[in-house]
Amino acid sequence: MYKTSVSIIGLQEKVNRLMLKKNVLENIIEIIKSRYPIEACGILLGKISGEKAFALKAIEINNILGSTKSFWIDEKEWMDKILKAKKQGLEYLGLFHSHYRDSVIPSMNDMERMIECPEEIWLILSYSPPEKIKYAAWRLDEKGLGLFKIDITIE
Q1: Count of CB atoms within 10 A of residue 108's CB?
Q2: Less crowded by CB within 10 Å, the N or C end of the chain?
Q3: Strand partners, 8
């Protein structure tokens, strides 16, 4: 059913829609709330079919900075979780992380990090109680020059 065409350095398709399972979004929100006020982060896993990315699973990765304003992941932990998921038939889609300000737009730090793996999806969630959680998905083009907002469909 799914045509997979992903590499660790970026999506080979031009993804313009993230199909996000409701239970995956709920899992991400639980992670974010449990880490508040520290920025939470993790990976999105699933399948690619044409211009759609199907996020079937989200796995938390430790924010080694423990910061309320930025995050950094341990590359070994990141790679280990991606390889384990690959053995389960899942592909790496990108990252999720939280902002504890009222913005789901990538920060300058985010943009610098996005250049490392152009085309990967970045799902950013804004959480600042008592406000409602907001979210948006983004990707850079393969050259790291253009930022694109990706439509999200909750399934």
Answers
A1: 7
A2: N
A3: none
Cα gap 39→51, rounded to integer Å:
29
Rounded Cα–Cα distance for residues 52 and 49 (Å): 5
CA atoms within 13 A on the CB side of 154: 8
Burial class (CB in 10 A: 0-12, 13-18, 19+), 29: middle
User: What is the residue extent of each domain of the chain?
Assistant: 6-154
Q: Where are the extended beta strands (E) located within 13-132?
A: 17-20, 41-49, 52-61, 91-99, 121-126
Q: How confident is the model at residue 13 (pLDDT cuts 50, 70, 90)?
A: low
Q: Distance of CA 27 to CAs 92, 112, 114, 125, Å? A: 17, 27, 23, 12
- CA-based nearest residue to 125, from 15, 1, 18, 3: 18
Q: Topology of domain 6-154, per CATH?
A: Cytidine Deaminase; domain 2 (3.40.140)
Confidence of residue 83 (pLDDT cuts 50, 70, 90): very high
What does DSSP assign to residue 155? -
